């Protein structure tokens, strides 16, 4: 019995589809399932999450130039007022070994709940931001990012020098908005070791050691509190707004996973 080249081609195509299709479907399912069955249930079990961009927008690169320092920024679509404000922002990198990048507690004193940072991305994945309003509403934005190896990228050649700088901080105001809010940048020196990275000097995997909490206040009033993990890049740096009413002092307190704690103060003009 003869089989035409056309029919033979059709048979081969069906065979290839039978082999490839289940894998592709499984990948798509696991991508959804990771959020739905694990991450969402762990942090927001039983909570309705609205997927829209009416409260925040999320900006990420589609393909990161460096997976260890992938820029992520949140732009608030509403102002921070005493009556209505963004109370918390959660940032997730779904496929990271530690998916929760951080929980950021906002205050009306910020004026605007914008936030920018650099994160590690370990493989092609969804990056999510969930904003929680003071009313309890949850709003989520999701972007897909192509990056690999961010959590296992080798440490710098001189880890000892990096450890000698641990806890050193910088704070500066970059510009002032028309509404009088200061766009500010805060940075703390810390290698933020993931426990998956090679020490270039010893050629051994360095044990995890990373920043866990940063609390920033102005004249004693909380502005921003960040509870973070090793998915934040080395030397954690954040940009955010706040509105200084008078000349005062910004105080930042940092603690890490090995019990280290540091506090520093910065004078700010009103």
Identify the notable features of this structure and list them briefly.
270 residues, alpha+beta, Immunoglobulin-like, 2 domains, nine-stranded mixed sheet, six-stranded antiparallel sheet, 15 strands, 17% helix, globular
Verbal overview:
The protein has 270 residues and is of the alpha+beta class. It folds into two domains: 1-46; 48-268, Immunoglobulin-like. The protein is 17% helix and 39% strand. It contains two helices and 15 strands. A nine-stranded mixed β-sheet has the order 1-8-7-4-5-12-11-14-15, with helices on one face. Strands 2-3-6-13-10-9 form a six-stranded antiparallel β-sheet, with no helix packed on it. Strand 9 (169-176) and strand 10 form a beta hairpin. The longest helix has 40 residues, at 5-44.
Number of domains: 2
For the largest beta sheet, what order do the strands appear in spatially?
Answer: 1-8-7-4-5-12-11-14-15
Oligomerization category of the chains in this entry: single chain
Say what the CATH topology of the largest domain is.
Answer: Immunoglobulin-like
Category by helix and strand content: alpha+beta
> Runs with pLDDT <50, length 5+?
1-30
**β-sheet strand percentage:** 35-45%
CATH architecture of the largest domain: Sandwich
Portion of residues in helices?
A: 10-25%
Brief characterization of the structure:
It is built from two helices and 15 strands. It has about 270 residues and is an alpha+beta fold.
């Amino acid at each position: 019995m003869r089989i035409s080249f056309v029919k033979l081609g059709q048979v081969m195509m069906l065979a290839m589809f039978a082999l490839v299709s289940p894998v592709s479907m499984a990948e798509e399912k696991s991508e959804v399932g990771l959020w739905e069955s694990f991450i969402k249930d762990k942090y927001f079990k039983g909570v309705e999450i609205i997927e829209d961009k009416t409260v925040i927008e999320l900006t990420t690169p589609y393909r990161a130039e460096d997976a260890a320092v992938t820029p992520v920024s949140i732009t608030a679509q509403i102002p921070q007022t005493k009556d209505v404000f963004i109370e918390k922002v959660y940032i997730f990198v779904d496929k990271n070994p530690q998916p929760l990048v951080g929980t950021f507690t906002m205050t009306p004193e910020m004026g605007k709940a914008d936030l920018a940072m650099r994160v590690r991305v370990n493989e092609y994945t969804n990056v999510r931001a969930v904003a929680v309003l003071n009313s309890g509403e949850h709003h989520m934005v999701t972007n897909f990012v192509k990056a690999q190896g961010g959590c296992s990228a080798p440490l710098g050649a001189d880890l000892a020098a990096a450890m000698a700088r641990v806890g050193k901080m910088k704070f500066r105001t970059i510009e002032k908005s028309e509404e009088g809010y200061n766009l500010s940048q805060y940075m703390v020196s810390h290698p933020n070791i993931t426990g998956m990275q090679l020490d270039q000097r010893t050629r051994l995997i360095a044990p995890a050691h990373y920043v866990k909490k940063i609390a920033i206040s102005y004249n004693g009033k909380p502005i921003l509190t960040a509870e973070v993990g090793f998915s934040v890049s080395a030397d954690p740096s954040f940009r955010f707004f706040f509105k200084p009413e008078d000349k005062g002092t910004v105080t930042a307190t940092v603690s890490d996973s090995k019990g280290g704690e540091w506090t520093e103060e910065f004078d700010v003009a009103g």
